[in-house]
UniProtKB/TrEMBL annotation, chain B:
It comes from Cellulomonas persica. One of its GO terms (molecular function) is hexosyltransferase activity. Pfam families: Glyco_tran_28_C. Residues 616-697 form the Glycosyl transferase family 28 C-terminal domain. PANTHER family: GLYCOSYLTRANSFERASE (PTHR21015:SF22), UDP-N-ACETYLGLUCOSAMINE--N-ACETYLMURAMYL-(PENTAPEPTIDE) PYROPHOSPHORYL-UNDECAPRENOL N-ACETYLGLUCOSAMINE TRANSFERASE 1 (PTHR21015). This is Antifreeze protein, type I.
Length: 190, 726
């Protein structure tokens, strides 16, 4: 066992005592440099690698209106549309394509609860899915749909380096949200 | 400020805390709702949780289900009874929490002073803080015998209840049928706890005695084992270790024969909720002697060195195992059931003010074994359709579910099968390396969430991420449905990945005699008949099919179905055949399909009617002739239906030898093969298949040669593998 490993082991054992942990946490809150040093000492992930400042881990294409290597640096926006009825995915894809065309500052990644993925495929947009609420209740009635949704979203955000999550409602897209308001979902720093 | 809302019970604590505190609150919330007690839930920030905000998931679900109301600043609350959990949280109550109560109880769910003489809370300070806040002095309740002595010694400073406030657990949500350790099987032992050093024995000898690394038992750990490496120097490679929260603890303990929990000698566990959960599931608990005061004869007690003897003895004595398992479950049911909570509340504050509520069940549906059908995307829908054919023929004790890379996966929904989707590399436009990192995470996520007994994969090659994930799920049987007819010279360097499968099935191929690919003669697979979604009996007759499609009942009809066109450009081929069809004598009507996964698609010729139905095979007999792709599904379906056909091989596929398949059918006189589509070849082929004499003979030959559907047989192999016998 290396010296560093032995130090980590000893430090972890000390921190197993609640009183010691409380003291260390309190000191860490007051002195960020001590906290950082402690993380190095313990070999604890500092959190930096989980946040790549918007750099995607899985680099998706930006859509059919872009040439193959265009838009690769644009931030990814997760557009979440749930409770979809047949035909709704076309409405969602159409609306977001218009926003992208008029702002040109982001790549959409869709999260839908529908099997009608054709409208995204035909536009070369990436899409992820979740089970519809009713189906999930049949499959895993013991679980919370809200937790499932949150877990899936968190996993997608992490996998793709998503910069922003935007829930949209099809009813609003049809006749509620003005185009100049909807365009705000693409207002991200490049 | 608005007037105070009245509740029967206010539950308050640091709602962010993981583990026993919030798990117990969630159980009480459910019991209260079921009894009709109106409940408010209050978050009291403390130094115990080092993250900002965010309520523990079990409590969040109670709020989502409407079982309680969350108290926020703008809504003052008055409760008949305030139940405050975890004394450490209340040593300094933030000002302006908008709550009043008629009476309060403080649940001490940790020892006041532990074995290392560390004091975790000062009862006088907490008692005063709560009194100042609520205006009433709390009555203190320990949550079990391990906590009571620490409060008895300071009872002059507090009002101490004479009974303990036992935690709740719904046994029915945890219980699984137990059959004991099967003869010859290796017993599975495991534990569920957070990975702090205090939760493990401090001596390597004790640790490895309780959790052996010698193959005599299988060791599973939920909650991480970093502390083990600190003690032993490494985490034994034979253990299966998952991080805390990696999966539902119910699934975890359901897979254990024995729950073995030994910790550092100076740790005093106030209760041990995870032990209670294991007992409720029916696992036999093996614990240090000091837990006897809590669990009595519900568990077995020994030293780390004595674990092996108990495991060996009970593994060899099924009756003794089942008797101990039953004692554990009965103990939890009798002492920690929801009914007991309603009774103690009634004794404190009287009957509930509301009607009993229906509390959503968290119980897992029992009785059916889940089989996860996993398909790659491919050029068309062949992989998905073969799996669907098997799923549709599953025994009623099987619950099929799909996880697919195909964007057409939604079609399985019309057969009642649930599905999850993972985008393929092609659909994302990312690199192979990126996708190879994405897939195993997603695959493992799906397996953890849905816990299938078996995975049936249909794809040309198992993915790298599938191989790495498989090792983490040793209990799940893996089956590979591996279509034959690979192109000659196809690389076989990835075939070694097939070692992860417990069974390799090879769907039959009517053109197998023409197979010159690398799978021929390998002898590593079980062969079944050709797999098609429908049986011959499922196909509609000509008149019915035409009526359902709205076709003319008499006019000769030609079907053009050349696949999705995702590898090759089918548009020009389609147009050439459409033009040739227009020139046919006799008033032929032409139809063309648009598959669900078609990426591109230009307009059809004016005289061609588009058709979008699934499954197409059901309607094939509506047509007098067809032009189809020579992929596995279309090819077998037209032969099965006896439709005189032109088969057009896609020569750009990676492995599927469509050229050989089409040529063989041509040689047998079942169909006409057109390898290169030109105006002339299209016209010649159509002339041939629309010749009544040739068509009748070809149809008869194809029907005579076609064997029975192998889908049901394939499914039975899967069922036998997981112990479901028809």
């Amino acid at each position: 066992m290396s010296a560093g490993r032995r130090v980590q082991r000893a430090a972890r054992r000390v921190l197993a005592f609640p009183a010691a942990r409380r003291v260390v946490v309190a000191v860490g809150r007051r002195a960020p440099r001590v906290k950082d040093a402690g993380k190095v000492l313990l070999g604890v992930e500092a959190g930096g690698s989980r946040h790549l400042h918007g750099k995607p881990r899985v680099d998706i294409r930006g859509g059919h209106m872009l040439l193959p290597h265009q838009g690769r640096r644009w931030p990814i926006v997760l557009v979440v549309a749930l409770g979809l009825e047949p035909g709704d995915t076309e409405v969602v894809a159409d609306a977001i394509e218009r926003v992208q065309l008029t702002t040109g500052r982001f790549r959409p990644l869709f999260l839908v609860d529908s099997g009608q993925l054709g409208p995204f495929r035909s536009r070369s947009y990436a899409v992820e899915t979740v089970m519809p609420r009713a189906m999930y209740a049949c499959v895993n009635p013991q679980d919370s749909y809200g937790d499932y949704l949150a877990d899936r979203t968190q996993s997608i955000v992490h996998a793709y380096g998503v910069r922003s999550v935007v829930p949209v409602s099809v009813a609003a897209l049809r006749d509620g949200v003005r185009p100049d308001e909807l365009r705000l979902l693409g207002q991200l720093e490049l | 400020m608005s007037p105070a809302q009245h509740y029967d019970v206010l539950l308050a604590s640091d709602l962010r805390l993981p583990g026993g505190t919030t798990a117990s609150m969630a159980e009480e919330l459910r019991a209260q709702a079921a009894a009709g007690y109106r409940t408010a839930l209050l978050h009291v920030p403390s130094s115990l949780a080092n993250r900002g905000l965010g309520i523990e998931p079990r409590l969040r679900r109670c709020l989502d289900d409407g079982l309680a109301d969350l108290v926020v600043a703008g809504t003052p609350v008055h409760a008949t009874l305030a139940v405050l959990r975890n004394a450490t949280v209340f040593d300094a109550v933030p000002a302006n929490l908008p709550v009043t109560a008629d009476r309060a109880i403080m649940l001490a769910n940790h020892v006041r002073v532990d074995a290392a003489r560390v004091q975790h809370y000062d009862v006088a300070v907490t008692d005063q803080a709560v009194t100042d806040w609520l205006g009433v002095r709390p009555t203190w309740y320990p949550i079990g015998p391990a906590v009571r002595p620490g409060l008895e010694s300071v009872r002059d400073q507090i009002e101490l209840a004479g009974t303990d406030w036992l935690n709740l657990l719904d046994v029915d949500e945890w219980a699984v049928p137990r059959t004991g350790v099967a003869p010859g099987a290796i017993p599975v032992i495991g534990r569920h706890s957070r990975s702090s050093a205090a939760k493990w024995p401090e001596r390597a000898a004790d640790l490895l005695a309780a959790y052996p690394d010698d193959g005599s038992v299988r060791v599973r750990v939920l909650g991480g084992a970093d502390a083990v490496a600190d003690v032993v120097g490494h985490v034994p490679a034979s253990w299966t270790v998952e991080e805390f929260g990696a999966r539902d603890p119910r699934d975890f303990v359901a897979g254990l024969d024995f729950f073995v929990y030994f910790h550092r000698s100076d740790l005093v566990e106030a209760y041990g909720r995870t032990i209670m959960e294991a007992l409720a599931s029916g696992a036999v608990a093996i614990l240090p002697e000091h837990f006897r005061s809590v669990f009595g004869d519900a568990a077995l007690y020994t030293t780390p060195a004595g674990v092996r003897e108990i495991v060996t003895r009970l593994s060899g004595d099924r009756d003794a195992y089942l008797a101990q398992s039953a004692i554990g479950q009965q103990f939890v049911r009798a002492t920690h059931g929801h009914e007991s909570h309603a009774a103690r509340l009634a004794a404190l504050i009287g009957p509930p003010s509301d009607e009993p509520r229906t509390v959503p069940s968290r119980q897992r549906p029992a009785g059916r074994e889940r089989v996860m059908f996993v398909s790659s995307n491919g050029a068309g829908m062949g992989h998905l359709t073969r799996l669907l054919a098997m799923a549709n023929r599953a025994d009623e004790r099987i619950e099929p579910m799909f996880f697919s890379l195909s964007q057409a996966v939604g079609v399985v929904e019309q057969y009642g099968h649930p599905w999850e989707y993972c985008p393929s590399r092609g659909d994302l436009g990312c690199s192979v390396e990126e996708w190879n990192e994405l897939f195993p995470v997603r695959f493992a996520e799906v397996l953890r969430r849905y816990r299938p007994r078996a995975v049936v994969f249909d794809g040309t090659m198992p993915y790298v991420g599938m191989v790495s994930t498989r090792a983490k799920f040793p209990d799940i049987a893996f089956v590979w449905s591996r279509r034959g007819m690979w192109r000659e010279g196809t690389t076989t360097k990835f075939l070694s990945r097939g070692a992860i499968f417990d069974l390799v099935l090879e769907p039959g191929e009517v053109a197998a005699a023409a197979d010159r690919g690398p799978l021929v003669g390998r002898g590593d697979s079980t062969h079944v008949g050709p797999i098609t979604l429908l049986d011959t009996a499922d196909l509609l007759d000509r008149a019915t099919a035409r009526a359902e499609l709205g076709m003319d009942p008499d006019a000769p009809a030609l079907l053009l179905s050349l696949g999705a066109g995702n590898i090759n450009d089918i548009a020009s081929d389609l147009d050439l055949f459409a033009d040739a069809a227009a020139a046919l004598p006799g008033g032929w009507v032409t139809y063309a399909t648009k598959p669900p996964i078609q990426r591109r698609g230009g307009p059809l010729r004016e005289h061609v009617t588009p058709l979008s139905v699934y499954p197409l095979a059901r309607y094939l007999r509506a047509f007098d002739a067809a032009v189809v792709a020579a992929g596995y599904n279309s090819f077998h379906e037209v032969l099965m239906a006896g439709v005189p056909s032109v088969v057009v091989p896609n020569l750009a596929t990676t492995t599927d030898d469509q050229g050989a398949r089409a040529a063989y059918a041509d040689a047998q006189g079942w169909a006409v093969a057109v390898a290169e589509v030109t105006a002339q070849s299209a016209a010649d082929a159509l002339r041939r298949v629309t010749d009544p004499a040739w068509a009748a003979a070809a149809s008869a030959r194809a029907l005579e040669a076609y064997p029975a559907n192998g889908a049901g047989e394939a499914m039975q192999h899967v069922e036998r593998l997981i112990g479901v016998h028809r």
